[in-house]
Write a structure and sequence with these properties.
Layout: H1 2-95, H2 100-179
Helix pairs in contact: 1-2
Length: about 180
């Protein structure tokens, strides 16, 4: 009877030890699973942030294209006005030749040409400044997007690593269970 009791007690102790091992392994796996889920959510957040940055870049690019098209139209209008003023100047020179009316008309055309070139020059300078500022903004946005992409990559690596560790630990526990 004594030996049976000792055998039963020994079996109970072994069972308790195995139960404790399983409980600890379960806690470890649950902890790793929780870490993997957290890393996945961080990766998803970083990916969404990256996508938003890309949408902003696309919108900025559309705005730049629209502005370029508008500038092209302005250039065409300025070219037409320049041709018109140059033609007027040439016509006055040929038709009038000399005299006060000719001088006044020539001064008027020259003044219009000067105003035209001044306005065109200001618009060109403003456009150049806008382009420089846009380039700076886009460079900053690209750097931010790169940072977000790096965060996504790091989160992905952490998640993959955690999942592999959990999988390996699960495989190890299956191997231990098969031995017993």
């Amino acid at each position: 009877m004594q030996t049976q009791t000792q055998e039963v007690m020994s079996l109970v102790r072994k069972s308790e030890e195995e139960t404790e091992k399983v409980r600890l392994e379960k806690m470890s796996i649950m902890q790793k699973w929780t870490t993997a889920v957290i890393n996945l959510s961080k990766r998803d957040e970083a990916l969404e942030s990256f996508r938003n940055a890309m949408k902003k870049q696309e919108l900025a690019l559309k705005n730049v294209k629209a502005e370029i098209d508008g500038t092209k139209e302005e250039i065409i209008n300025f070219q037409e006005k320049h041709e018109h003023l140059t033609t007027l100047r040439f016509d006055f020179f040929i038709k009038k030749g000399k005299g006060a009316d000719f001088t006044f008309a020539l001064m008027s055309v020259n003044l219009n040409l000067f105003e035209f070139y001044s306005l065109f020059s200001l618009k060109a300078e403003r456009l150049c400044m806008n382009r420089k500022n846009q380039i700076k903004r886009i460079k900053r946005q690209v750097e931010d997007a790169k940072l977000e992409l790096n965060k996504v990559h790091e989160s992905h690596l952490k998640t993959s690593e955690t999942l592999k560790m959990t999988e390996n630990q699960g495989n190890l526990s299956k191997g231990i269970d098969k031995k017993n």
